[in-house]
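Bug report

Summary: structure tokens for Hemerythrin HHE cation binding domain protein differ between web form and batch submission.
Environment: batch mode, default settings.
Steps: 1) Submit the sequence below via batch. 2) Compare with the web form result.

Sequence submitted:
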Amino acid sequence: MIDTGNLERQHQDFFVLMGKISIHRSEEQVKANAAAIALLLNQLSGKLKIHAISEDKFLYPSLMNHNNLNIKNISQKFYTEMGGLAQVFEEFKNNFATTNKISANPAAFLIESQKVFTALQRRVDKENTELYPLVVL
């Protein structure tokens, strides 16, 4: 089977970074901390890209060719779903990757970050609870 420990640690890193961003709950807090938020957002983006590369090159190809039909089907479903979420995150990051972009529209940042982070958290929770238990060593 597959050692998912590193992937699960990366998931925890996502939660930590999203938590550090999400502590800023008002427009005033977002504006006052826009530089720190932009830095954290770019760190999260980098970690997500590394994670996606690991999954795309190693985890999902292996699982989609697995002998167990259930694992094969679930991994195909998860892989397909991830493409949409990756695009949503990339658009979010592009809209708010700098201090100026965050400061210019803190209300939109608050709304969009909540949507994107909720979707990302759901996705990670599904991998941790539905996919990884099927394939762990």
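Above is the batch result. After comparison, the two runs are identical; trailing whitespace caused the diff. The first helix runs from residue 5 to 22. Residues 38 and 97 are 5 Å apart (CA to CA).
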